[in-house]
Specification:
The chain is α/β, with parallel strands linked by helices. Helix content is 55%, strand content 12%. The two termini are 26 Å apart.
Amino acid sequence: MNAEPTVQIVDDDPAFRESLAVLMLSMGLRSKTFASGDELLQQFDENLPGCLIIDVRMPHLSGLALQERLAEFPLCPPVIILTGHAEVPTALRALKQGALEFLQKTFSEGELREAVQRAVALDAERRALHRARSARRRRLALLSNAERQVLELVLAGYPNKRIASNLGVSQRAVEDRRARIMQKLEVDTLPDLVRFAIEAGLGADG
């Protein structure tokens, strides 16, 4: 998906939402505005790049509760939390939950511009990493079960002779499987294979 970065603004004050939307337009960024967290969640698309600007104090669903809900999405854009009050515990909770920035509503235009630019750049970086990891995992899915077994033992540092012994096959069979693994994963050397595995997330979540 090649959508333009969009700043999604969630605030129950219509005049403030509009002023932020105008500021985003002056930065050359698209924006979408929402009067509540519930309204955002009804329309939320994690595949839409950009960032979120969320007010802390809103009826029904607070900004922090909304942030917590959004964190359940693997590709949630970075979050900038705004507050009209200097509340240290609130700021700490927002940052612990992954907010990129916590700003009082007395912020300068420059402060918000800088925060949004950082957030949009971070989101682009995260999405590029996600696409690369997904592509590697698609290549991993091409491996047969026998090839996957050999790959796991290669990554554990076992030589071909020991892999053959562990799997009860000939050393030639292990060599053939290793060759097919390298071909399917499009890598040429053992260091490339190890790097591929790390970047695909093997050993982290499977």
